[in-house]
Design brief:
Length: 279
């Protein structure tokens, strides 16, 4: 089902037909109904018609008493059918649509505040998150339909996949930018995931500020290892990650050394030269 027209769109659509624009007017803060000017005048009260029932009202005896030209009515009915305005409101069946009373709206607002506060407390979240959470909920309601929101689910696997593919590169680049201007050392370690996929974990250790008394360690990358795992291979992977281009030259000047677990391909002995090339 299409979203309802907003107030401005509805006003513009009605102006496309002279008779409708002269006979009906939009109701402020109510996108689901129109006021029939002629019927309101004859009955001495505001006569509101649900947009869904607009065609039916034009053909009613109540409206016919004040509008006798059948050709004009037929033209208006054809116009309504052409723009297909009514299916956009087909979920409403009452001929008279009333807005919630101010009291109901006020109570709903308090209930919403209570639900948000309860969620923050139950999940041990900081209270200063409330504004952002409220804005986020408002954005979701505007962007997605109620049906889409009702079937929404997210689990640990979804979060892991999204974090790895979307957020991971963002954080990695922020750390790489930081290392251009901060002295750091590398911590390298080989490992495997479920005994199948082998990788090289690259961590950077640095002081966050000039007054920091303790170092901070951040995971920069998990590089998958395929084929050769010699010191030269590992060195080339690190160069590609950290020390390429003008940014890489800046990071190379900031790199103080590396720390490993002592594996042969990590230290400058035997057949390896990873450490010797980094120093």
């Amino acid at each position: 089902m299409l979203d309802p027209l907003n107030q401005e769109e509805l006003s513009q659509v009605l102006k496309l037909n002279d008779y409708i624009s002269q006979t009906f007017r939009p109701i402020e803060n109510n996108l689901l109904a129109l006021q029939c000017i002629s019927c309101s005048a004859s009955q001495k009260r505001k006569y509101e018609i649900a947009i869904q029932n607009l065609s039916k009202h034009l053909q009613s005896k109540t409206h016919e008493k004040h509008n006798h030209d059948p050709d004009i009515i037929a033209t208006a009915l054809a116009f309504i059918d052409k723009i297909n305005i009514q299916p956009r409101y087909s979920q409403f069946s009452n001929s008279q649509v009333e807005l919630p009373s101010p009291k109901i709206i006020r109570n709903n607002k308090y209930q919403f505040r209570f639900e948000v506060t309860s969620f923050l407390i139950q999940n041990n979240l900081p209270f200063d998150l409330s504004d952002k959470l409220s804005a986020f909920i408002s954005t979701l309601v505007q962007k997605f339909t109620s049906d889409e929101l009702s079937i929404f689910t997210v689990d640990r696997n979804h979060i892991s996949d999204i974090a790895g593919s979307c957020l991971g590169p963002f954080f990695q680049q922020s750390y790489l930018n930081l290392l251009k201007n901060t002295p750091f050392s590398l911590s390298l370690d080989e490992g495997s995931i479920k005994g199948n996929t082998e990788y090289l974990a690259v961590n950077a250790r640095y002081l966050e500020t000039s007054t920091s008394l303790h170092t901070t360690t951040k995971l920069i990358a998990m590089i998958q290892l395929e084929g050769s795992k010699t010191g030269e291979t590992l060195y080339n992977l690190l160069v590609s990650l950290l020390f390429t281009g003008s940014d890489g030259e800046m990071r190379k000047k900031m790199c103080l050394g590396n720390c490993t677990d002592g594996a042969a391909n990590m230290i400058s002995s035997g057949n390896s030269f990873l450490t010797s090339r980094l120093e």
